[in-house]
Write a structure and sequence with these properties.
mainly alpha, two-stranded antiparallel sheet, 18 helices, 2 strands, globular
Length: 427
Amino acid sequence: MTMEKIMAKQKLISVFTIAAILFARCNLGLSHGKAYVGANLLVDFIAAAFCLCLFIKDKETTKKSVFNLATIWLLAFSILVFIYGHFKIGVAYPDMYSRQFHLLTIVPPVLIMVILFHAKDDLLDIISWAGNIVIVTSLIISLIYDDVWGEWLQGMTSRVGKTPAGTCVDTSNLVLVLMIPSLYQAIVNKQLKKHLLFIVLAVFQIVASGTKSSMFPIILVFAIFLLGSAKDKKEVRRNIIILIAIGVIGFAAIMFIPALYGIIGERVVEMFETLAGKTSGTHESTGQRMGVIREFKNHFGEHPIFGHGFYAFKTMPYALLEEYRPNEGTEVAYRAIHTHMNFLELLFSFGIVGFVMYYWFPVYLTIKSFFARNKAAKLIVLSFMVSFVFMDLGIDMFYPYMTPYYTYLVAYCLLRNSRDDRKQGGL
């Protein structure tokens, strides 16, 4: 294919290249052998070749896509992770760090950012349709890979969504992020017919996963888009009524439809009962997290500035917080767990220094979103950031997953392309 033909199909190639990167890293993953790693390497090689074509076409834009605030943040934090993980600073969790895994997590989002910098006029369409493709592939791969789907045919209410790349929680978080641009297209840009099916599939996967940290942000994202797109007070009032109705119907469905109650309702009730002190113990996820928070409070002060070491919490004797039954017998035993919370894992592993090095950039993006004049940049970036507050409360994401890096770099591209930032000379 000649350079002219490639550039003529730039938008289409961008959609499928980004979708392929997300599919390889976030559906297939890297943990099941050389074939999976090879698939990621192949996709990244194709993406790099496409980026080279874009560089030949427009060298100045490519330079801006590589040398900017986002890459400075990503590089600086990645160096910190490498130093702690590779050199086992402090008390490192054995064999947790892998240079190959790390590189194949942080390089693909940079390739995506380069592609998006060259497609500023089509950026929203590209991330929407790339996301729609991966929403579908996530469901297909999960149906093939996750045996628990078979329990549904037996009338059991089980959490589903596992893929080779991660658990049902990981899939749910990914799908939520991918759904947000399409939801904006449907609600704000009135492209409901184009994106409705993919939104429904995304919501279905989130609900079927039973993941609280992905379900809670959905109503907030709806609120951001409905209220942010309102043109006058009358429309604001109407949208508030719509939001209340959606919330009431959704809550009623979760609590009174047996299948939904078994997947998510019970877990919501358990969470509130634990927080209210009505139940205790480490046999449920909320109880385990309360135990993690308690031990974090007791031991964070031992190394508050630079932390204890890469994923050090799980190596500690006080991390034995998860109940299980060896060989599925009657005896109850306890095993060590991660903090399962991005905030605490960063603080415990890298201390205040690492926490600030990671979170200053999302905070910066959040602040910039409030001042963006471009509606898409403002509402989508704000939705991303609100969603990650909940997701980071539910799982540690800074090392195992590409999802946060993809999201933050896409957010940066959206803000970089907004009209007020162009007037001010960029971010």
